[in-house]
## 1
Amino acid sequence: MNSFGKRLIMTTFGESHGKAIGCVLDGVPAGLDIDETFIQNELDRRRPGKSKFATARKELDEVQILSGVFEGRSTGTPIAMVIFNKDQKSRDYSNIKDIFRPGHADFTYWHKYGIRDYRGGGRSSARETAARVAAGAVAKLLLKEFGIEVEAGVCEVAGIEAKEFDFDYAKTSEIFALDPYVETLQKEAILKAKEAHDSVGGAVLVRATNLPVGLGEPIYYKLDAVLAEALMSINAAKAVDIGLGREASRLYGSQNNDQITKEGFISNNAGGILGGISNGEDVIAKVWFKPTPSIFQKQRSIDVNGNEVEVELKGRHDPFVAARGSVVAEAMMALVIADMLLLNATSQLSHLKKVYL
Amino acid sequence: MNSFGKRLIMTTFGESHGKAIGCVLDGVPAGLDIDETFIQNELDRRRPGKSKFATARKELDEVQILSGVFEGRSTGTPIAMVIFNKDQKSRDYSNIKDIFRPGHADFTYWHKYGIRDYRGGGRSSARETAARVAAGAVAKLLLKEFGIEVEAGVCEVAGIEAKEFDFDYAKTSEIFALDPYVETLQKEAILKAKEAHDSVGGAVLVRATNLPVGLGEPIYYKLDAVLAEALMSINAAKAVDIGLGREASRLYGSQNNDQITKEGFISNNAGGILGGISNGEDVIAKVWFKPTPSIFQKQRSIDVNGNEVEVELKGRHDPFVAARGSVVAEAMMALVIADMLLLNATSQLSHLKKVYL
Amino acid sequence: MNSFGKRLIMTTFGESHGKAIGCVLDGVPAGLDIDETFIQNELDRRRPGKSKFATARKELDEVQILSGVFEGRSTGTPIAMVIFNKDQKSRDYSNIKDIFRPGHADFTYWHKYGIRDYRGGGRSSARETAARVAAGAVAKLLLKEFGIEVEAGVCEVAGIEAKEFDFDYAKTSEIFALDPYVETLQKEAILKAKEAHDSVGGAVLVRATNLPVGLGEPIYYKLDAVLAEALMSINAAKAVDIGLGREASRLYGSQNNDQITKEGFISNNAGGILGGISNGEDVIAKVWFKPTPSIFQKQRSIDVNGNEVEVELKGRHDPFVAARGSVVAEAMMALVIADMLLLNATSQLSHLKKVYL
Amino acid sequence: MNSFGKRLIMTTFGESHGKAIGCVLDGVPAGLDIDETFIQNELDRRRPGKSKFATARKELDEVQILSGVFEGRSTGTPIAMVIFNKDQKSRDYSNIKDIFRPGHADFTYWHKYGIRDYRGGGRSSARETAARVAAGAVAKLLLKEFGIEVEAGVCEVAGIEAKEFDFDYAKTSEIFALDPYVETLQKEAILKAKEAHDSVGGAVLVRATNLPVGLGEPIYYKLDAVLAEALMSINAAKAVDIGLGREASRLYGSQNNDQITKEGFISNNAGGILGGISNGEDVIAKVWFKPTPSIFQKQRSIDVNGNEVEVELKGRHDPFVAARGSVVAEAMMALVIADMLLLNATSQLSHLKKVYL
């Protein structure tokens, strides 16, 4: 259950403080230029330890491609990528060995598996998302061949909403903020929480541009449904909107419907998806992250024996996870769209005839 | 791509105005009492034509079980269920044969497949959800064996929010309203929109109670992620929250974390899921529906040849889809949880030993 | 676990003496002409009750298409087909209700599920293969668009081997014999066994012609491996050969290797598959069927309570199942190749560019 | 398409002369003791370079576990294992860079993908099977907990058949011969072929003992069908028999049926499988390997430009692949049975109740 996708299938493995994390990406068409620098750059964007807004854990996150690439191009065989863990201060975690940190997966992993790798959250750590970013980078390379681009940025921090959405600006922002005008306020909110040994939540806007019409496989592999799954699978995600999302439910049909002219859709309230299929407009989704559960205040909890304890965490944690989450959201959307691109290639007999006849 | 689930796999088929719709449910453990009356009752709850708040289309939605049940019990083989379409006024749709209705899947199906069954939306019609309700009813029967119950109701109509959540009341309400105190206002909003030939949106709260700890398969079959997919796959759904959802992103970590005592979790902001795995609390999700796209006002659109047209729909449509959507949301959550129950049965070696040794 | 295929996915349902059997075929590209007469003809070829060489059970096997076809063409949505059971003499089976027939699945179904639909073997009956033939017929229609043809015939009965392989002749033979010169002997062997209340086994040769190079997905969806699975899943199948099969293992490498010239491969010992991928030559497989387990002699067995019993079957059974098995083998090979055709459409970036750019 | 299994899912990656080969094994229940020495020993059994009967390529095949194991036990998360390639004499292959070796996958990979990693066969090399053996070793550890054992050995070399099947003896034989009395003849046949720069084929018998009744998921995940797929997916495999296999087709039903007494089945012609489900008897399968295609004689072929060439291979190759193939066959059968064990855990409601209630 550690695989994602139907035709472009990512399988990830690895624990926060194990030997390595990594992924196997199966289904990449042969003949794609695999730009390793680009992949590494994507990982560097997600990498912790770069600013005071994120965890101080310093991982170089150097990715190695083990297979599937020959002379710079994909061969059609699975692309395995591995990142060996370096900065694994496992000692930091010895004190929480038998304790369930509130808001964390400790409690559920323990009960589900009867055992847990407690070091840094083990498999449940957001560190796993580095593997997704590596796979997502390959998906982006594939999408680029078709002119499709996926971008993301932070649109809300602690309730402070972006009014403008400048995806280029986000690329340069330490917190991937989409709106330069509220970025300062947003940063202050993060630092204020950090100083109070607390954390804040936020939201990320993800956008794909230049999609062909037709991506998405009704009824149970709809583009919007799979995007929802993909984004909700990111650590700390608690809500997903497609297009106007929740806001659409407060409009009248006559307001919300995207009417059509010769030039295309007049509006894009739908977020580029109708009936689970892309309509050619920008695909827009929003994912909402809870505040980081790792805070440095005393909290009530229990240990594995059911005894009540007071937890006070040590270690290094992001006071705001949505920033790095935006890089992961991009990766997930890229993977979803690339998968849908492959799936849709056989939707019509005429497509197949172009390939074979 | 018309299948859902990994161990309990529902495959649906059928078009709104074709011969029949139906489903095949594979993976139901043998020995389950299959109460056909219960299944039919579930379908009756979703069935249109019962009140002025829903479409006047009258379908008896009589379900026939074709296989997988012998002498009242499941045999472990696939359970096929079929509902023959009766009230198919296909003529109603001849006028939109070549036209793309705004807000509908007409445009995307046409482009994706190069052909569409235009009668009543064909496969993209919400009629398909009757098949889900039939399958969901079987999932509910399975869950009942373990004391797990899934319930849903409407918590918001046209921005009018429920303050109380009375799931028993919802069962008796024509619009499945959770809050009797706002129900009248909510109904008025629907009727007002209907009279204006318009439609409204809303939201549904779904809840599962009495789950064991451990359901959900990280990393890519997380309970919350799959719920998000399941709920977003319902027609007209545009957003999904788990637990506090979006609201959680506006709290501090110290507020949002569910602390733990000997008696259990102090709060349930997480909606019963940590790290993608059920924690034993109620699983809570919310799904937001856009206003019905089928409205009876003039709208701009184009036809299949790219000519601009004015669309004015006829036919019978719900002015508010979330009510019947709540029955579907229940079915989808039941299917997800039942699937997770089966999957989790092999999470520990000790579980397997209970089965085999 | 009642589904087969990855992109062209057949799900079957139904029991021998239940209400109906049928299938849902998902993934058929839109725009394919669906010739219902052809589908019915395929079913008629498999249909029992036509000669003294097969069971006297008379089923009309009238197939109804419930979905996925509009105005004679596939729409891209799942094609559901159903065959209602007519001639269900359930009384024939009351005497074996609690008994395990030797060579049958009675024993294993009972133990696996704790319950069994004993009427005519229930789900384990070869009657299920009618659903495969319906789905296979659609696969054949798809393959025909690419000039690919799948044919089969009986090449051995009770050890009497065909020396010639005339697939056209097989179409006219009551036992689908490939070799007219040994057909009489083969028929005599069947009738002799039948008279002795016994049964015989045999083998079927299946061939696909005119495949493109490239079908088959290494490493775990190889064309030969999936063919082996497909053919071995047919009732009573006990062995599968690809190309020379077992005989190849008794040659030297220098004899067995298919050398290549400008004109193509000099020989086809490989059966058209190298490394799990089609090489453009005819794909050849052989499937070996055990003698029908249903014989009308006294046999030792036990009942569900563990008591020893003497079984003496009544009812109607084929004395030789491979004949009708050859129709099923064709269907299975057609399904496999069609699935591979769809999968291979995304093997190269250049293929995708043909579809999208 | 590089994954195998439904609940115990092995994904392999890597090329013969790339950086590494490896696998990710997902679905291993938590709490299993992972004996790394045992896994390494299994790899050592398959490892080349140990005798004159196998290729001289010397790989240490040192396996590293990267994830999924904590303090010696499985945690329920994916177990990634990697083997870095050491002895990669890529130069050996430069002369066949543009040439299709007869009997190899060069031709088909080239055409399927438009590119190939020609070094040592790339992905199509039998080197990939080392990853299977690693995964299979974990499956064996799981099966051992339930008393199930899987063993294999060579039963035929160049037409020389074993008459006795001594699985313990096979463990000590350089060619994994099952029958000590014909082993010398079999070895001579291999060496004689080797001296003639040729190769021979053979067959392997695989056996699983002590299975519970009930493993196998009809209709399309039958134990025998999936075994056939698993064994046929091994490099150079061309035929698979279950139980008596082909021989059964030459018996009468009255001879072939395994009659039953209180003490169990009187015979085991079926190879332990009825209706696709294990019946508690030994599961028996045979897999037939073609002679190694890599021979050191002149052969006719073409190059990537279609020019006719004479190929004369250099490099190091097994003159007889079935010996090492027997280790792989064991691994594949272990994986299949372990997967079926997990799947069957939910076949009955009563099983689930044992886990949850």
## 2
Amino acid sequence: MSLAPAPVPRLVVVGSVGLDTIRTPWERRSNVLGGSASYACAAASFFARAGMVGVVGADFPAPARALFRRRGIDLAGLQTVKGRTFRWSGVYERNMDVRRTLRTDLNVFADFSPELPEAYRRAPFLFLANIAPALQLHVLDQMRAPRFVVADTMDLWIRTAAADLGRVIGRVDLLTVNESEARHLTGAHSLLAAARELLRRGPSHVLVKKGENGSLLLSRDRIFLLPAFPLEAVRDPTGAGDTFAGGFMGRLARDGRTDERALRRAMLYGSVVASFGVEAFGLDCLRRLTPARIEERAARFRRMLPS
Amino acid sequence: MSLAPAPVPRLVVVGSVGLDTIRTPWERRSNVLGGSASYACAAASFFARAGMVGVVGADFPAPARALFRRRGIDLAGLQTVKGRTFRWSGVYERNMDVRRTLRTDLNVFADFSPELPEAYRRAPFLFLANIAPALQLHVLDQMRAPRFVVADTMDLWIRTAAADLGRVIGRVDLLTVNESEARHLTGAHSLLAAARELLRRGPSHVLVKKGENGSLLLSRDRIFLLPAFPLEAVRDPTGAGDTFAGGFMGRLARDGRTDERALRRAMLYGSVVASFGVEAFGLDCLRRLTPARIEERAARFRRMLPS
């Protein structure tokens, strides 16, 4: 055992780590590694060292943990406790346009209380991936003085934990939402009107994820519009939003800057990593992905954009 | 009567001219000026002189004709015949996401055979707006040697006039489609796969219109992605695609170029004009629109895009 202090990760990610059973129109796979923290950390790992905060059960497969380690993810914040790992199952219908959750088993997540390793508390970048807002707040409370905090959420928390979610939104620098969440949170139909209303609730930036239709970053006096990298075929959209956000945060953490230019560049890289992510099942893309392939696609993507 | 030859318009547009009855969640208006050629010519008129090819009945209102004249649209190709003008009525449901056609009365359109004035036949740019493919072919047959031909279509013709539509697609430089038309025409679910398949059928470019999600231009070896100008509120989406295409064609006709750079710029201007179009009911936007307002919004739009 080393007495040297543990290194401070550039980025801390809290979220779910679980085993997913996914059915698409073409295939079905059981117990594949998933969860918002898994996707986000894996995506971020191509840019910066990420510390994962989450919980798994005694049944969590060793190969999954090995994958995290190979990606250089710091697992000091990943608790392993008695019981079964979080499980989710869902099905994609109508050519992937609609996702329906079949089952959610919280298992060890039911009693999870995230405790940050000492080194994590001094990390400059924090991503509160999709998880109960009370847990997001608990993590925020443990951080010393993070430079840039981003939170994601989902429809479930808008319905069941609105007050806590409101507190999260009031304490972050950037909120990521998808289109339905933006509308659901605000009641506004226009995406722009919804994003502007969210901006009034605290964050200095709102990032709307529109899947294959790209993303939109709204700041007090600026709008940035980014299309998505176009794909011939999507094999599994699970985790696309988390992969996008993870790539975005990883790139910001690597650059160490959060000005408009850095945010725009980070969105481009988030979009590129997410495009790889959905081309394979679950986290499979990561087994083959390399920084060189990311750069090559980023360059191709740039040539497709206005200039 | 002057014996001087009529001037050759830069752009010829053939399509429908009609009176629409439109219901949105907030309002209902009867017999407002509409039709694909009306929207496209009006949008194009901010950039280049457009010659309209279409037919109206004896009941066509004088103020509508006066609006066309004020926009400098050449009406030599607009036939006026006995009978009633084409009428369409539709309703926007679910916050504008779904449009349902209530009624289509072809009226004078039933026996329409477009005959191009002599001057039109030498126009360099031709836009075959949405109209029966047989009529689009008849117009194409009358043109001497147009430099750049663009065609639009709709689901109806894919179902009822597939053979003629296939001939049109084989003879144009650029085909514009929306997402559902692209899928319907090809059977491909992925937009990119659908657009690539359409490219194989003849045109050198396929322009996919995605409404508020922007547009995509596919050429043999290039892809261009353009988001849409974001709006706080959409009042009436009727004619948005025709306005986009009309602005696109008008800008190309003004520039007199069709290289990749010119096509990309024309898409940006088409998008800007369409954004004004949907902010007001029917063609109302045009009563207030000016080139200065178009340039101002184009500049604002550019600042929202990657660079």
